[in-house]
TrEMBL record:
Belongs to the UPF0303 family. Pfam families: HbpS-like. PANTHER family: PTHR28255, UPF0303 PROTEIN YBR137W (PTHR28255:SF1). This is UPF0303 protein R2X38_12315. The lineage of its organism: Bacteria, Pseudomonadati, Pseudomonadota, Gammaproteobacteria, Vibrionales. It comes from Photobacterium rosenbergii.
């Protein structure tokens, strides 16, 4: 289980898009669904870009509670511009809760794993990718691994990798 803040920040720096579109959201959401199925897991998935939901899917076995968790985790990314897992580990390292440190309502903000910032290089955070249904660290890993897979398949990355070999 990764709890090192520097490693978590490195994930955020690494997992950035050159551009993002509705089609990218569809590919990413579908990949997360596929990866959850491989784990025999039931999750709800949300991809929000500039406040606009581009992908939302609730697998059989999820409940409306998962949508509530998604909203609370997404609020953390929207406010702090870091993954919800990172923010949970950040406050844990400080020995405080998010409520104590930031005076936010726990009913609205959940610093638990599963929401990751959607970042466009040279632009910044433009949204989030959020999953709910697994234990919180596994939610985080599902999102990170799916982002890594999709980004490794992007044409820009393939060209760079081919030219470096």
């Amino acid at each position: 289980m990764i709890t090192d803040l520097n490693v978590l920040l490195a994930q955020e720096k690494e997992l950035q898009f050159e551009h993002f579109s509705h089609q990218t959201a569809w590919l990413l959401g579908s990949l997360i669904k596929h990866n959850a199925e491989l784990r025999e897991a039931a999750v709800a998935i949300d991809i929000t870009f500039n406040g606009h939901c581009l992908f939302s899917y609730a697998m059989a076995g999820t409940s409306p509670d998962n949508q509530q968790w998604i909203a609370r985790k997404r609020n953390v990314v929207d406010r702090y511009r870091h993954s919800s897992w990172y923010m949970g580990q950040y406050y844990k390292a400080k020995g405080k809760t998010i409520e104590q440190a930031s005076l936010v309502d726990a009913k609205q903000f959940a610093p638990f794993g599963g929401s990751f910032p959607l970042v466009i290089k040279n632009v910044g955070v433009v949204g989030s990718v959020t999953v709910s249904g697994l234990p919180q660290y596994e939610d985080h890993v599902l999102v990170v691994e799916s982002l890594q897979t999709l980004l490794s398949q992007q044409p820009d990355k393939r060209l760079k990798l081919q030219s470096e070999s």
